Amino acid sequence: MLFKSTTLVATLLAAASVTSAQLRVVRPSRDIWWVAESTNVMEWSCRESQQEQFTILIGKEGDVIPPLPIFAIQNNFQCSIEVTQDKANQVPGDNYLIYFANIINNTDVYAISEPFEIRPLGSAYPAETTRGASPSASGGANAPGASDGATGNKNAALSLSGSSMGLATGLIGLVSAAAAAML
Q1: 3-state secondary structure of 26
Q2: What pLDDT is attached to residue 129?
Q3: Helices 163-182 + 2-20 axis angle, to 10
Q4: Is the peptide bond before 28 cis (omega within 30 degrees of 0)?
Q5: What pLDDT digit, counting tens, does each position of 25-81 carry?
Q6: 93-101 and 116-119 as β-strands: parallel, antiparallel, unpaired?
Q7: Is 144 helix (H, G, I), strand (E, B) or coil?
Q8: 105: pLDDT strictly greater than 80
Q9: 163 vs 21: which has the higher pLDDT
Q10: How do the domains of the chain map onto residue ranges?
Q11: Which residue stretches of 58-154 are H helix?
């Protein structure tokens, strides 16, 4: 019985660590679009992932043309990056996707964004939104239109990410309860 209990606890802990270590594209998303021929911001869950580097590509959902590279090698620790029009100059439209992939094999995809829209030049950027409920902030210092909230600095990116953290915390709580019940 003790062997089964230990195995169960180890399995649940492993599942919790994998769940909390997923790379996610936070921005752009369905609600956070880009503006064509402009500087846009890309943001990801850098603190929740063990992935050190990846390639960033852009494509359209259901398109026969393979995704095009934006950044050949991107370091995960940055958490966000500005994408200038010389890096990604797609025409306005919807159903665009950002792919984070293996730097050697682009078909080994680590994360895909939600489908998002690229609006025409001159369109307003979306109002800032926060995601998740964790007080741990992540972001870069050069996000256009973003505010750090504390000082009102419009040149700072701040996002709250907690959905994966909440899931991991829930799994750890489940493991704790299972371990306590077995004792």
Answers
A1: strand
A2: 55
A3: 170
A4: yes
A5: 999 999 999 999 999 999 999 998 888 999 999 999 989 889 999 999 999 999 999
A6: antiparallel
A7: coil
A8: yes
A9: 21
A10: 25-160
A11: none
Backbone angles phi, psi at 179, to 5 degrees: -65, -40
Query: What is the signed CA dihedral for 111, 112, 118, 123, rounded to 10 degrees?
Result: -50
Instruction: Extract the tokens encoding 80.
Output: 């966000």
Domain covering 25-160, topology:
Immunoglobulin-like (2.60.40)
Tell me: the pLDDT tens digits for 64-79? 889 999 999 999 999 9
Please check whether residue 24 is in contact with residue 99, taking contact to mean a CB–CB distance below 8 angstroms: no
**What's the pLDDT at 114?**
97
Contact 126, 33 (CB under 8 A): yes
* Contact partners, residue 57, CB within 8 Å, separation at least 6: 67, 68, 69, 70, 98, 99, 101, 106
Neighbours of 98 (CB within 10 A): 25
**Is it the case that residue 15 has pLDDT exceeding 60?**
no
In the structure encoding, which two tokens stand for residue 57, read together?
């590509």
- Asked if residues 160 and 135 have their Cβ atoms less than 8 Å apart, the reply is yes
Place of tokens 């996000």: 143
Measured CA distances, 81 to 27, 84, 140, 144 (Å): 10, 10, 7, 10
Q: Which residues are paired to 98 by β-bridges?
A: 58
